[in-house]
Specification:
- The protein is built from four helices and three strands, in the order H-E-H-H-H-E-E.
- The radius of gyration is 15 Å and the shape is globular.
- A hairpin with a 6-residue loop joins strand 2 and strand 3.
- It has a single domain, classed as Ribosomal protein L17 (50s Ribosomal Protein L17, Chain: A, Alpha-Beta Complex), CATH 3.90.1030.
Amino acid sequence: MRHRVSGRKLGRPTAHRKSLLRTGVTDLLRHESLRTTEAKAKEIRRLAEKIITRGKGGSLHDRRQAATVLTDDGVLKKLFDEIGPRYIDRPGGYTRVVKLGPRKGDAAEMAIIELVA
């Protein structure tokens, strides 16, 4: 039974899945938009929301916690200098997932995940 089990496996071993999500969040914060499959976008959104909330905090502990997820120091700096202060008055919902339809090659449902302006 799958009661109260959260998160998608995405058909990958744990280490690969964690790496995929970490790089996905890093790229989302770097470019502020990302085109990927719908399932990956929804999982990236879960992690990105938590990281952006950390970016709003600004303490040393928040910075170190965010650094465990993000794979680039430049993106970490951008998170705390630009993205966090942008959403200081917003209580959540920093990202948006827009469905695009099926991909041509394998008919996987595609989506764009982007930061809300």
